[in-house]
Amino acid sequence: MFSIGIDFGGTKILIGIINQDGEIIKSIKRNVPRTKHIDEIIELTSATIEDLFSDSKISLSNISGIGVAAPGIVDADKGILIYAPNWSIRNFPIKKIFSDKYSMPVKVYNDVNAAAIGELHFGHGREENSFFWITISTGIGGALVINGELLLGNSGLAGEIGHIIIEDNGPLCKCGRKGCLESLASGTAIASLARKKIKNGAVFQKIDPKINIDEITAETVIMAAHADDGEAISLLEEVARNISKALSYVVNLADVDLMVIGGGVMESNGLLFKFIDKNMKRYVYEYDQRNVKLARPALGYNSSLVGAGALILKDKNL
Ligand SMILES: [Zn+2]
């Protein structure tokens, strides 16, 4: 049995054929059309699904369903993308579109929850049946798996660690409130923290002084820190303290030990990982009685794609 997994990112679409062992038989990556118009996105997705099967021994008749990881707030019961800020759309019926077209079961989860599902069935979850997943990229998302089950909550918003308020009157978050973790520790926040520090006179030794300040990204800061730039290192330490603080709330509340940290900001970022780890001890209640561990995703960049496939493969009702 196979499924199709679709991982819709803000800028990339990854589509793959997944087998029952969570292996990606074949996958294709495409850029989201520049217009980000939903009709074009869906058209490109359908064309890519055709390409996927064009020179494969597997045909659509071998597929038991389509799992979708979508970038935004999702009503998983109805299969509706309620809001995708990157694509500027609301209330889009993803499930209906694909089930009408392919006449097979379709399941839709938010991409962060899908990543946790991927890890649950085919990654860290094989060793630990409770863990917390956190994505640190342009935004911050999280998903809580307890005793082998993903916790969705009443509104499907369980695990939204990015919008825990860490600092009263901190920077404005895109959710409209101030001082959320996302506004202090996402990739976007790292870049704007660096710009603010430079405007206030800080000197980053390993950032080109001629760079246009608006061109500074999280990657600029992360590379500088890894080149031993003291200012960049202390910026990452500050970011790490906020992430550790938020993760400590999860540990204290849910008593889970394993934190799986994914997302673009963590790639090639051993320092941030190390600083988060160091600070957990400071914030977690009864740290010595627990076995708190940080880990990278066992499925690498493919957690959401494999998780999307697993939505179908592991659904006992299908
Ligand atoms: Zn927020």
From TrEMBL:
<dbReference type="Pfam" id="PF00480">
    <property type="entry name" value="ROK"/>
</dbReference>
<dbReference type="InterPro" id="IPR043129">
    <property type="entry name" value="ATPase_NBD"/>
</dbReference>
<dbReference type="InterPro" id="IPR000600">
    <property type="entry name" value="ROK"/>
</dbReference>
<protein>
    <recommendedName>
        <fullName>Glucokinase</fullName>
    </recommendedName>
</protein>
<comment type="similarity">
    <text>Belongs to the ROK (NagC/XylR) family.</text>
</comment>
<dbReference type="InterPro" id="IPR049874">
    <property type="entry name" value="ROK_cs"/>
</dbReference>
